[in-house]
């Protein structure tokens, strides 16, 4: 045990010595050259092996929830692995009505920090052959000293050289996680990625949060059909067929070839007792077909009964 | 006895009501609205295919395809026929693609990725690991 403790850093140094990546990592262009970026995030020190719950608690607290790392241990920490898996971090956020939005790479990280969004980062502090995985929360960048500011382990605002940080982060495939309130888009937001992330919130049973997430998408991308579908589905699930109908109607108006939209519109119209219109919409879905054709035929059958 | 009987009838009435309620099929409506995850998957698949088509439409790629004896229209047709899983597999590699007109290393990488794509499409057979 002792041997590995001393041997590993030595190995690390040897391995890095032969590595071409010793050249400095340039600060991304989106970081202003003067003054450091720093997001105000309350620091929670981690218990042993509990970097996952601590990191998630910090960003959830930042997002406006009152939460402690201990509240998250059960849903995030896997005792047998002495750690927290990435999917558990993602679902841990969703189950509390927050949008978990993964990002990749330094440019995205810098853009988000610049926009005031803290980012959970997955680092491998050791080498790939003997991984030591660690979650920290990136809270800032300091271009003057080329450093990343991390709430990490027992240390708030730990300063790590950009090159070291990138080496540890790349071994985690430069995976970062934003945990945002559903009315706050990432600075790097992509319509499909956002709607995908919000549909995860919907699947976690957080219908009200998902509703806000889809509305937020539509405020930015008013013509984005999957966001209208999501809005319709949430409203339908909440027992509001009249408003669901309007959302589905919008989806098929924007894209008349959208079979899923016709199918869901058909079902909603049937629920509302608009039989003829429901029949027409269901037939349209079946005619368009696609990978969900079986479901569309089922809808049509039920309406024809 | 009389009071007891009344209680008994009420109890049975309640029991029947419960059974009747349980026997009523749950509204099938819930089952036949297709969920948002399906919308998202379809959108992802469409996006990946679009990227592949854009790639195949690039002049340098078309020239390469023709140089390899591949009809660009055929390549397009095969992209259309990819399943979501196959398309997704390709998409993972697309980010490595350099922009057009980059340096030599970029060009080498580009050819590597191009061949990988044509391999996956079954047009060439350069990399056995894609099988």
Roughly what percent helix of chain A? Answer: 40-55%
Number of helices of chain A: 13
Helix content of chain B: over 70%
Most extensive interface: pair and counts?
Answer: A-B, 28 and 18 residues
H-E order of chain B: HHHHHHH
Biggest pleated sheet of chain A: 7 strands, antiparallel
Roughly what is the average pLDDT of chain A, rounded to an integer?
Answer: 89
Number of discrete helical segments of chain B: 7
Note the gap between the termini of chain A.
Answer: 71 Å
* Poorly predicted parts of chain B: 23-31, 98-106
Topology-level CATH name of the largest domain in chain A? Cathepsin B, Chain A
Give an overview in words.
The complex is a heterodimer of chains A (305) and B (131). Chain A is of the alpha+beta class and 305 residues long. Chain A folds into two domains: 17-180, Alpha-Beta Complex (Cathepsin B, Chain A), CATH 3.90.70.10; 206-304, Tetratricopeptide repeat domain (Serine Threonine Protein Phosphatase 5, Tetratricopeptide repeat). Chain A is built from 13 helices and seven strands. With 131 residues, chain B is an all-alpha fold. The interface between A and B is medium-sized, with 28 and 18 residues.
């Amino acid at each position: 045990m002792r041997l590995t403790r001393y041997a590993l850093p030595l190995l690390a140094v040897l391995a890095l010595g032969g590595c071409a990546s010793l050249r400095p990592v340039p600060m991304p262009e989106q970081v202003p050259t003067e003054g450091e970026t720093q997001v105000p995030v309350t620091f929670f020190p981690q218990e042993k092996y509990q970097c996952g719950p601590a990191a998630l608690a910090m960003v959830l607290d930042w997002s406006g929830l009152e939460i402690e790392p201990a509240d998250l241990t059960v849903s995030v920490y896997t005792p047998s692995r002495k750690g927290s898996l990435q999917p558990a971090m993602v679902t841990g956020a969703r189950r509390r009505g927050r949008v978990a939005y993964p990002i990749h790479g330094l440019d995205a990280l810098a853009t988000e920090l610049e926009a005031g969004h803290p980012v959970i980062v997955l680092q491998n502090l050791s080498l790939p052959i003997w991984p030591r995985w660690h979650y920290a929360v990136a809270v800032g960048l300091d271009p003057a000293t080329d450093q990343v500011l991390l709430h990490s382990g027992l240390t708030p605002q730990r300063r790590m050289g950009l090159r070291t940080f990138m080496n540890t982060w790349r071994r985690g495939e430069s995976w970062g996680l934003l945990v945002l309130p559903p009315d706050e888009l990432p600075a790097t937001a992509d319509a499909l990625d956002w709607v995908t992330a919000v549909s995860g919130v919907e699947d976690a049973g957080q219908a009200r949060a998902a509703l806000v997430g889809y509305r937020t998408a539509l405020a930015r991308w008013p013509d984005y059909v999957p966001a209208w579908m999501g809005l319709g589905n949430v409203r339908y699930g909440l027992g509001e067929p009249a408003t669901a109908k309007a959302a589905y109607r919008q989806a098929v108006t924007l894209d008349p070839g959208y079979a899923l939209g016709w199918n869901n519109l058909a079902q909603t119209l049937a629920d509302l007792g608009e039989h003829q219109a429901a029949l027409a919409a269901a037939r349209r879905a079946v005619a368009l077909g696609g990978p969900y054709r079986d479901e569309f035929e089922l809808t049509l059958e039920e309406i024809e009964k | 006895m009389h009071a007891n009987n009344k209680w008994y009838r009420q109890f049975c009435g309640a029991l029947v009501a419960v059974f009747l309620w349980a026997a009523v099929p749950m509204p099938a409506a819930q089952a036949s609205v297709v969920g948002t995850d399906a919308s998202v998957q379809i959108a992802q698949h469409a996006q990946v295919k679009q990227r592949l088509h854009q790639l195949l439409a690039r002049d340098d790629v078309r020239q390469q395809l023709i140089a390899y004896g591949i009809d660009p229209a055929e390549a397009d047709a095969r992209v259309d026929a990819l399943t979501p899983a196959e398309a997704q597999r390709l998409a993972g590699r697309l980010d490595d693609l350099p922009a057009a007109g980059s340096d030599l290393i970029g060009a080498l990488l580009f050819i590597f990725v191009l061949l990988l794509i044509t391999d996956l499409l079954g047009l060439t057979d350069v990399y056995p690991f894609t099988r």
